[in-house]
């Protein structure tokens, strides 16, 4: 029997529609090659829609909730004040849909240039698991005497045992199927209360997973070790703010924002998970055909892995890696191919069954369906 899934597609702003269009072309190729189909609902949201209507997440929540997964392009434009879309849509969706774990693979693919001297793909293959609904991103704070010399701003960081525990447990289970090493990243010598709670949860759950080795690295030290000795890390688990920062550092190590991808996972099947490239809307290059669609296409691979379509997901990842290795540059006019041409080449490899899967050892794709349950 052919598996059928319902996907919500949010192209968004800037380069979002371009890269998502490439991902959907690759999805068409995967459906033609493998035994599954998707029903897709394109949802208009983002900066231009907000400017025209004032609508944010609340207006599309019910529509999104009815789907198996969400493929997200990008959101943002200089015409919209910073914070409105980030808090009113993206963070709101993560919290209402309890997308508790932001999962970012950091893998240097063969043939992809990196600014780290002498770094090889064998030395860079890890996953960063970021708590996605709490911490400093709960949006709680206030300003007193705003606009005066006596202005005082307070910003709260919220950490709950339940919120930490579900993400740390997921990270342990992820490590169990990989190299069996879990690293907690925090700042326990300064953020004593929050840091102690994170350490307690890791220590308590470590007894449940005795096969997994654990260690700890301060976030500032992580910024040193991550680029110089990435082979030290397998699964890194961290809080929302620190995760936001070190995952972008990880993207630089693996070749830039254009090849980086992420999954925002609901861990109990009560709402859809969301999959997105992490490069943002890049309005300065929108419409020029300069954007690398690889991040969006690799997000599609994560999405299909999450749904249990492992062979298709693996073929998409391998095809993307093949094309990345052929590009003289990873972004801009120097890329050698336009955004659409990169997408078409990847789609052709998938459709023809010509992906060299030896380029992508077994990793995260095969674990997602087991670790994050399907919709209930």
From TrEMBL:
Domain Isopropylmalate dehydrogenase-like: 6-346
Signal peptide (residue range): none
Cofactors demanded by this protein: Mn(2+); Mg(2+)
Molecular function per GO: 3-isopropylmalate dehydrogenase activity
Annotated keywords: Manganese, Metal-binding, NAD, Oxidoreductase
This enzyme's EC code(s): 1.1.1.85
Protein origin, superkingdom: Bacteria
NCBIfam families attached to this UniProt entry: PRK03437.1
Protein name (Swiss-Prot/TrEMBL): 3-isopropylmalate dehydrogenase
Protein source organism: Leucobacter chromiireducens subsp. chromiireducens
Taxonomic placement: Bacteria, Bacillati, Actinomycetota, Actinomycetes, Micrococcales
């Amino acid at each position: 029997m052919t598996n059928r899934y319902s996907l919500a597609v949010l192209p968004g702003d800037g380069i979002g529609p371009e890269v998502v269009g490439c991902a959907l072309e690759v999805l068409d190729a995967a459906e033609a090659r493998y035994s599954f189909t998707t029903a897709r609902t394109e949802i208009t949201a983002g900066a231009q829609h907000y400017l025209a209507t004032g609508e944010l997440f609340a207006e599309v929540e019910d529509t999104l909730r009815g789907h198996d997964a969400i493929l997200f392009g990008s959101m943002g434009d200089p015409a919209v004040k910073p914070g409105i879309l980030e808090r009113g849509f993206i963070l709101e969706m993560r919290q209402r849909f309890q997308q508790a774990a932001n999962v970012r693979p950091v893998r240097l693919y063969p043939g992809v240039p990196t600014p780290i001297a002498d770094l090889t793909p064998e030395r860079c293959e890890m996953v960063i698991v970021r708590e996605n609904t709490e911490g400093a991103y709960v949006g709680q704070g206030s300003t007193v005497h705003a606009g005066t010399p006596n202005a005082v701003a307070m910003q709260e960081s919220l950490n709950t045992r339940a919120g930490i525990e579900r993400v740390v447990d997921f990270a342990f289970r992820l490590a169990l199927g990989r190299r069996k090493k879990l690293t907690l990243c925090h700042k326990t010598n300064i953020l004593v209360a929050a840091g102690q709670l994170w350490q307690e949860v890791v220590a308590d759950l470590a007894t449940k997973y005795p096969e997994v080795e654990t260690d700890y690295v301060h976030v500032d030290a992580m910024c040193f070790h991550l680029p110089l000795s990435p082979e030290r890390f397998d699964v890194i688990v961290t809080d929302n703010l620190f995760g936001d920062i070190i995952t972008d550092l990880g993207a630089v190590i693996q070749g830039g924002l254009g090849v980086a991808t992420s999954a925002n996972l609901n861990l109990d099947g009560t709402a859809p998970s969301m999959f997105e490239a992490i490069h943002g809307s890049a309005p300065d290059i929108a419409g020029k055909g300069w954007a690398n669609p690889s991040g969006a296409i690799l997000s599609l691979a994560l999405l299909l892995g999450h749904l249990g379509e492992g062979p298709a997901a693996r073929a998409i990842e391998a095809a993307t890696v093949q094309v990345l290795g052929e590009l003289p540059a990873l972004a801009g006019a120097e890329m050698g191919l336009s955004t659409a041409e990169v997408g078409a080449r990847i789609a052709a490899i998938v459709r023809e069954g010509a992906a060299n899967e030896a380029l992508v050892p077994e990793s995260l794709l095969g674990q997602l369906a087991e670790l994050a349950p399907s919709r209930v």
